[in-house]
Amino acid sequence: MTWFDTPVDAVEAAAYRVPVPVGEADGTLQWDGTTIVVVHVCAGEMRGLGWTYADRACVSLIQGILGDAVRRTGTLQPQANWHAMQRAIRNLGRPGLVSCAMSALDTALWDLSARLAGLPLSRLLGQVRDEVDVYGSGGFTTLANSELQAQIEDWAHEKRIPRVKIKVGESWGSRTNRDLSRVEFTRKVAGDDVDVYVDANGAYSVGQASRMARRLTEWNVSWFEEPVSSDDLSGLARIRGVADADVAAGEYGYDLVYFEQMLAAEAVDCLQVDVTRCGGYTEWLRVAALAAARNIEVSAHCAPNLSTPVAVATPNFRHIEWFIDHDRIESEFFDGATTPLGGVVAPAAGLGHGMTLREVDARRYRVA
């Protein structure tokens, strides 16, 4: 028996709610914790691990209709397993929680496949480079300047990551003067040799975003993420036409059609893909190919450790968002989680993606 005709014995899922040290916010949302849904796919004594950052409702989907679809295929074949899940959820709707649940299960299936094949997951996915760039991400609108300074100094000076991102668009774009003050402060702390990025989370109107784009040139901001809603493709394209900074969006892409529409609208300079939302590694590779056909790079949105194996297998890849909340959770939950240094990260050593759940450490956060 080979790894690709190994039967899937069991599908397990659990949800964990991890509080943040203090309340956090961006331009359009506030939160006091993060939920991670962790999946294990079992074949004999071997287990594959995946996860998504989504509501606990994903647990029922994974252990129910999606897990049943995977088991019905009879063997471990990630592409076939993915299509079985896609067919099974026809009447549920793909975007949103269903796609998050699919993503977690798909990443676990790929991890299990690589472990059974005796390979690092990055090799199984088609590795093209040894390491990829990262950028430090956090900079919440709720932070005092002293707290923001500590984050930036940790990224830029302690970890030597030459790219940092902060949130703007505070209170749905109603505090633009404070946004600009925080950008100026970030540039001062980071220094001239560090790229400064901003993320509005869709808080601005097209007019506001256009004016902000012009002002951001004063501090040489090179990345303007979701200046307007990511649903407003024509608005994104308009901002792209006036901004010096690269316009980025795509983190709310749950299926291939969404990304194709964004690319066809010429809405972004760099396409963001979230492996825990888009449909997992299987769909990520398709999205990256779509972008490559238009000479567009892709960037990994969040879930940094889960993104790394597929990032090094993506020729048209730019960087991983090393998001502070997810980094904190993944470092606590998973043996094998990595830490970037010098602005780059390589996949964890070992078979599969190289990570295992610290079940004892995670247990106190379990909610489903």
Automatic annotation (TrEMBL):
<dbReference type="GO" id="GO:0016052">
    <property type="term" value="P:carbohydrate catabolic process"/>
</dbReference>
<dbReference type="GO" id="GO:0000287">
    <property type="term" value="F:magnesium ion binding"/>
</dbReference>
<dbReference type="InterPro" id="IPR046945">
    <property type="entry name" value="RHMD-like"/>
</dbReference>
<feature type="domain" description="Mandelate racemase/muconate lactonizing enzyme C-terminal">
    <location>
        <begin position="145"/>
        <end position="246"/>
    </location>
</feature>
<dbReference type="InterPro" id="IPR013342">
    <property type="entry name" value="Mandelate_racemase_C"/>
</dbReference>
<dbReference type="Pfam" id="PF02746">
    <property type="entry name" value="MR_MLE_N"/>
</dbReference>
<keyword id="KW-0479">Metal-binding</keyword>
<keyword id="KW-0460">Magnesium</keyword>
<dbReference type="InterPro" id="IPR029017">
    <property type="entry name" value="Enolase-like_N"/>
</dbReference>
<dbReference type="InterPro" id="IPR018110">
    <property type="entry name" value="Mandel_Rmase/mucon_lact_enz_CS"/>
</dbReference>
<dbReference type="InterPro" id="IPR013341">
    <property type="entry name" value="Mandelate_racemase_N_dom"/>
</dbReference>
<protein>
    <submittedName>
        <fullName>Mandelate racemase</fullName>
    </submittedName>
</protein>
<dbReference type="InterPro" id="IPR036849">
    <property type="entry name" value="Enolase-like_C_sf"/>
</dbReference>
<dbReference type="InterPro" id="IPR029065">
    <property type="entry name" value="Enolase_C-like"/>
</dbReference>
<dbReference type="GO" id="GO:0016836">
    <property type="term" value="F:hydro-lyase activity"/>
</dbReference>
<dbReference type="GO" id="GO:0009063">
    <property type="term" value="P:amino acid catabolic process"/>
</dbReference>
<dbReference type="Pfam" id="PF13378">
    <property type="entry name" value="MR_MLE_C"/>
</dbReference>
